[in-house]
Amino acid sequence: MIDSIKHKKIIQTLVLALLFFSCNQQPESSEDLSSKASTKTIKVYLLGTFHFAQTDSTYNVLDEKHQKSIEELCQIIASREPNKVFLERQPEFQFQNKIDSLYTVFRSMKRPLKAKNEIYQVGFRVAKMLNHDSVYLCDHPGRYGYLNEAAYEYAQNNDQTDILERKRIGTVERYEDRANEDSIMKNSSLLEYIKWINSDKVMDASHASYISNWPLIGSTDFYNYDDDDTLIGAAVITDWYRRNILIYTKMINQVDFENDNAIVLIMGADHIPIIKNLFDANPYFEVVSASKWLDR
To answer: Quick one: which of 200, 196, 230, 234 has its CA closest to 215?
Structure first.
């Protein structure tokens, strides 16, 4: 009996000591986290673009003035000496195999490629300038189109069109909707337009429109776990975050943490804010502000 009491007291003492020790431990600071990373960080250059091939006949990126601007943009990116150029295509075998074949042909060409897509016009050019053997793919499919259509239909059927039109309090208007984007695009060089797209004011408003507007579409007084329509707007942004998290995942899984010094991503501009946030939180990477690196 005495031994049993002593045993209980010893256990109680150990438990109290462990509690005291854990309560007095300081939470890890960002400096502590950084110290766990390698002595160097990998610089991340994120370039948000418009989709070159989706412009109308009045804006042809193959025109001489735009080609000159694209060449200047490529020189700026190449000057950052990224070890890997990431592009908005899926890295699954059938896609990677096709892109690898196209890039091999591109490297042997002496004339500019006539395809309008920014993957070829910017990504391939930069990789070739740097004499890279390959380009890297990181895109991932999402359900944005389907969910976006469903959310629009719900809003139209439930008196929520003022959310779609950004007229309800709590909604955010994208900066390019407030500005005359067509005028900016047509009266600026392509490089200047790209810089405008990557400016903080445009990026911030774009991201704010996603996280402010979509969650307002759906039920406001009834929620049913089995009925997707009750949170249909939130489903849109949930899928958007999911896609971008998987894009980020595919990127870091292809990084050589010991030997890479810098990477660049060329992707549709709306993806950039979420991907930037993910890299910002990873102590092994350092995101370089576009406003700094695009103005060399």
So the answer is: 234
